[in-house]
Amino acid sequence: MIKRILGIVVACYFLASCKPLNPSIMFRTPKDFKYDTQVKDTTKEYRIAANDAVSFRLFTNNGLKLVDVTEGNQQMFQQLNQGITYTVEFDGMINLPIIGRVNVNGMTVREAEFFLESRYDEVFIDPFLLLNVINRRITIFPGNGGDGVVITLQNNNIKLLEALALAGGLADQGRASRIKLIRGNLADPEVYLIDLRTISGISQADIILQANDIIYVEPVGIRTRQVISEIAPIFGIITSAITFYVLIQSLQ
Asked: Domains in the chain, ordered, with CATH?
């Protein structure tokens, strides 16, 4: 009878508690999930997209500040010199002084600089332009459960290893073999699985990060003390059941 009670209690407990055994693990994928294949061209630069905030500065004569002697245009020339921030619209267009709305969607920063210099060449002598995307951010979960960090990409070619270093590296509970890079439309994202357990996996980390990328280091799960804390209530139930059973037997 005691064995039957123990068996029922243990079975009920584990059936009820098997799912939340690793409650902190996010972005789970089924065993047969097909991960995306990384692009071999690891030198690919960031390309400007909608909603990017772009810092813009324009010079003339290959580096001299713009100067205008007319009082009416003085404010506009100050804007061109001071690095005002402009937002890329939903259709990839950006509205800049003098030349108006132009399409920079899909261009690298350098391609956009050459393109805009060619447009301003119609107005200024030897225009020199500096462009920088200043709101490119990525989200990193280093593998310690709920702690995450949002990092602004200061450079155009930051790679996965650099981003992990900026986040402080992998947490103690992080699994180096289960690093997921989630990219693109979150309704149908690209998901890459990266294994950094050995030195051979370093080639997988040689990938240029894009704005809004999510790097998720899967945690190893619950530790021994957490397992004990999860299982401890079962022993209380078992003890109570045995005590109750013994009490009933003694009364009979």
From this structure: 26-44+136-219 (3.10.560.10), 53-133 (3.30.1950.10)
Query: What distance in Å separates the CA atoms of residue 30 and residue 5, rounded to the nearest whole number?
Result: 35
Token pair 């350098």 is found at: 110
Within 13 Å and on the Cβ side, how many CA atoms surround 8?
7
> Global pTM?
0.60
**Strand, coil or helix: what is 215?**
strand
Q: How far apart are CA 179 and CA 176, in angstroms?
A: 6
Distance CA 149, CA 169 (A): 11
Residue 164 phi, psi dihedral angles, 5° rounding: -65, -35
What does residue 170 show for φ and ψ, rounded to 5 degrees? -75, 140
Q: What is the pLDDT of residues 138-166, one digit of tens each?
A: 899 988 766 788 888 777 678 888 888 88
